[in-house]
Amino acid sequence: MKLTEARQQFISSWGAFGTHWGINRTMAQIHALLLVSPEALTQDDIMEELNISRGNTNMNIRELINWGLVERVLITGERKEFFTAEKDIWKVVKQIVKERKKRELEPMLHLLDRLEAVEGDKKDKQVKTFVDTISSIKKLGRQADKTLDTMIKAEESWFVGALMKVFK
Amino acid sequence: MKLTEARQQFISSWGAFGTHWGINRTMAQIHALLLVSPEALTQDDIMEELNISRGNTNMNIRELINWGLVERVLITGERKEFFTAEKDIWKVVKQIVKERKKRELEPMLHLLDRLEAVEGDKKDKQVKTFVDTISSIKKLGRQADKTLDTMIKAEESWFVGALMKVFK
DNA sequence: ATATATTTTCAATAATTTTTGAAATTTCGG
DNA sequence: CCGAAATTTCAAAAATTATTGAAAATATAT
């Protein structure tokens, strides 16, 4: 397989992959393109490579920057802005975990705290089932939260080694 | 907070939560409803509680069954079908992990295998960056794959205890 | 300061996904 | 086997989400 074809396949699959995880196709594709690009790219480069509009490109680049996955690069002598993606995949994964934890897991845990305090007699089956479900989700959620916190701080080499001893 | 309100909030939040993870709102809501229902429900119960059409209800129940999160229950003397959700959240999580691994992670790893074999000189920066990126994603993906396999087999109590020793 | 290049915004449009509801099919008791 | 109940299907409609492109805002060189 030729490089051009391989790159295209990777970009397109990464985009499809993203849509299964609540990330829009274009955002994932821009990320993929930057991941396989040795040099930083401009908005125009990205527009051209992916055949997308200026507005779309701009919005999704900014979103990637918000996620901490892409950053602006200043190149001396160049007027345009250049963009580059973090290439260390372990860092990328940690960054995504960190953001999703903050955006989704933490608010969910706060909601569960409030819902657990529902009024009513635990002898009522409806109440019991509700409280039990909420509590068990909360328990697992808290566990996940702590585990992910530790993972975010970990080094990849440590992670791979240590985790494999446990999950033998 | 009253039970009715709490249930509604849980169902609606679980639905919103799902949309961030590539799961459609209704499917997540039906799942939430069944999670907090002590008894198995019929299609009509679900339609009424969530105010959704028969077709929608039916399709999403079947999808939940495909995911292994909901099952049909036969109730003697009743003609209608009843549905119930697995209440053990650890089992639910393992089931979701198992399915997503099969549906997404494994196909992605196969793609990466093929893409890694791209033609071209590794002295070419484009080629080198492409191959390095693909390789490192693959490496981490394989690691995740193994780790998840072990997790799928694990007991919750074991998981919580043992993992916490590592992630101290 | 001005002209020009570049980036950003956002209302309109397009594409995609979800939902409906009625018809077709299946199931099951009698 | 018949008829009613229940389930399933799926084309059309609605809702949601993504994309465009042109205008506005901003930045920079001279």
Through-space gap between termini of chain A: 36 Å
Oligomer: homodimer
- Looking at CATH, which topology of the largest domain in chain A would you report? Arc Repressor Mutant, subunit A
Count of spatially separate domains of chain A: 2
**Dominant shape of chain A:** elongated
**Protein structure class of chain A:** mainly alpha
How do the SSEs of chain A run, as a string of H and E?
HHHHEEHHH
Q: Approximately how much helix is present in the residues of chain A?
A: 55-70%
Radius of gyration of chain A: 21 Å
Low-confidence stretches of chain A: none
Number of strands of chain A: 2
* Portion in strands of chain A: under 5%
Defining key terms:
168 residues; DNA-binding; mainly alpha; Arc Repressor Mutant, subunit A; 7 helices; homodimer
What does this entry look like structurally?
Two copies of one chain form a homodimer. Chain A is mainly alpha-helical. The longest helix of chain A is centred in the C-terminal third of the chain and has 29 residues, at 125-153. In chain A, α1 (3-19) runs antiparallel to α2 (25-35), α2 packs across α4 and α5 packs antiparallel against α6 (125-153). Chain A starts with a helix and ends with a helix. Chain A has two domains: 3-85, Orthogonal Bundle (Arc Repressor Mutant, subunit A); 89-166. Chain A has helices spanning 3-19, 25-35, 43-50, 54-66, 89-116, 125-153, 156-166, and strands spanning 70-73, 82-85. The model of chain A has no long low-confidence stretch (mean pLDDT 93). Chains A and B meet through α1, α5, α6 and α7 of A and α1, α5, α6 and α7 of B. Chain B binds a DNA duplex (30 and 30 nucleotides) through residues 24-26, 42-44, 52-56, 58-59, 62, 79-81.
